[in-house]
Amino acid sequence: MKKLRELLSKGKEPTEQRVESTVKELNEKDFDAFIGKADKPVLVDFWAEWCMPCLAMAPIVESLAKKYAGKALFAKVNVDENPGLAMRFGIYGIPTFIIFVNGKEVRRIVGAVGKAGLEAELSKFIA
Q1: Which of 75, 83, 94 lies closest to 37, judged by CA?
Q2: Cα dist. 48→81, 87, 101, 122 in Å?
Q3: Active-site residue numbers?
Q4: Which domains does the chain have, with CATH numbers?
Q5: Is 26 exposed, middle or buried (0-12, 13-18, 19+ CB in 10 A)?
Q6: What is the pTM of this model?
Q7: What is the pLDDT of residues 23-57, one digit of tens each?
Q8: Which residues does the annotation list for site: Deprotonates C-terminal active site Cys (predicted)?
Q9: 15 phi-psi bin (left φ>0, alpha ψ -120 to 50, beta other)
């Protein structure tokens, strides 16, 4: 409270604290290491900035990441910035969600399936 009063008395507003995302951004350099060392199921969101359905699903992925923290890991891959990963995993439509368990793909969901649809698929792999 003292710090807040001090800032306000100087005519400065306190800066908003940045909330850390629970969804890790992956690229071609760190993808294999992240997926390979994961001891929980990993849901990877393949997306692009220009994709409206992808943008609609982003807050859903964030909310699931918070809900299943400690039970699953969540990551995203921008296909425009990582075309090698998009090609490697045969991403032809976005958003595409791939669930990995023990480093292997176990489920693929294509399209903006909504929270219930995505959660239903993910829950099959969470103990």
Answers
A1: 75
A2: 9, 14, 24, 22
A3: 51, 54
A4: 20-123 (3.40.30.10)
A5: buried
A6: 0.83
A7: 999 999 999 999 999 999 999 999 999 999 999 99
A8: 45
A9: beta
CB 98 within 8 A of CB 45: no
If you write DSSP's letter for every residue of 58-111 in order, what string do you get?
HHHHHHHHHHTBTTBEEEEEETTT-HHHHHHTT--SSSEEEEEETTEEEEEEES
With tokens 């990963």, the residue in question is 85
Cis peptide preceding 14, ω within 30 of 0: no
Other CB atoms closer than 10 Å to residue 125's CB: what's the count? 17
Which of 52, 60, 55 lies closest to 120, judged by CA?
A: 60
Start-to-end C-alpha separation, the chain: 43
Please report the sign of the dihedral spanned by the C-alpha atoms of residue 21, residue 127, residue 105, residue 28: positive
